[in-house]
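# step 3/5: fold
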Amino acid sequence: MDTGVAFGKVFATAVDDLGLLMIFLLVGVLALRVCKPLKKLYLPAGLIGGAVALIMGPQVLGIIEIPSTWSGMATPMINIVLTTTIFGTAINRDKLKKYAGAIDLVFLTYFAQMLVGTAVGIGLSQIWKNMPYAWGMMAIYTYWGGHGAATTAGTLFEEMGNSGMLSLGIIMATLGLIIAMVAGMVWVNIGVRRGWAGFIDKSTDNKEDAPILLTGDQRKPIGFTTISSDVVNSLAFQLALVLLCMFVGKVLFTTLAKVPIAPFALVMSKIPALLYGIVGAFIVWFILRKTHTDGYADVKTIKNIGGVALEICVCSATATLDLELFASYLAPILLHMVCIILLMCFICMFLLRRWLKKDWFELALMAFGQGHGSTPSGLALARCVDPNSKSYAWEAFGMAIGVATPFTSLFAAVLPAVAMQSQWIIVGLGAIVTVVCLLFGEFVIRRQS
């Protein structure tokens, strides 16, 4: 067969299969438009569309055939997502000091979930012997990280031969989103009744039914042109920067794997491909900033490229879930989730209240929602008690997430490989950083507030 024809068929298949996936993404948008309960749970359209495809597929109704390519979309899409998270990263020393409490809170919830989630998973695996290895540490990728991190880690685990982790991740992340809003609204009501909410405006209408279609001033640009259209399309240029980062990372690690030092070369050869884009992005972004050419990169557009890849990833991963796996793992997942809920309640509603005197409840709601489902979940909970964004918690939480994101993105690509060597390394790392964060909160943040 002619090589050109073969490649043509490959691309035609990719376009057809991706086109069908996008149809279900639109189905998810339509479902959110007509079904308000779904919207109030902040479930993403990709998740809903993927669930519809799953139900219509061969595992349930058998109405449609799920393309085989869908199960392979996660890895390349997550490569793009992780690469785009690095652009725009800049840590300001003054803001680090000002928002140290929020930063400490975010890292504490992450590493405490790593510790408790992994340890509880090890314990439950003694009862449910068929659970995937190291499944408990998925807490930081599902409850704390959401569907994007869940898909990243799940994909990497599966590439290392740990089957079932991708489906497990999607299931846990979905349950986490639901819990974030249900349990979060319970805390909202408790806080209002106890007088913890200092910025609530009872005269302001609840805007949880905000429209999906934005009009007028609600519409925001998804990016800006940074280069003349006579030279190249601006979106194509930003995509080229993203792909350049992935290429740089790949060349770097494949070159290091050829170094004539056997142990070093062996380690480099085993570096996960998901790490290529992150390392490449650090290098490219550093060079752009040092040469004062970072103006060519439009961070907003690049983040939106990552957003597109994430939508594709979540929708395809949901549509290819293993339902038999879900039925088998439901009981241990629920027990595991209860432990994470209790942990987050203790950190956010007891420790943070002890450490901070000002605007602690708004920040606690943000961390609680984010630590169970996603950042939008946390912001939605905080908006219930601070609808006009008057508390310092908004900027503090944004700064904290900005500081944490490069680290958590890197951990999503690195820690699964570490866990495959030993889960106890993950438990130890989680314990060490958790203790440091607790001591910092108790003896630094509490005295400063």
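# step 4/5: annotate
The chain is about 70% helix and 0% strand.
# step 5/5: archive (pending)
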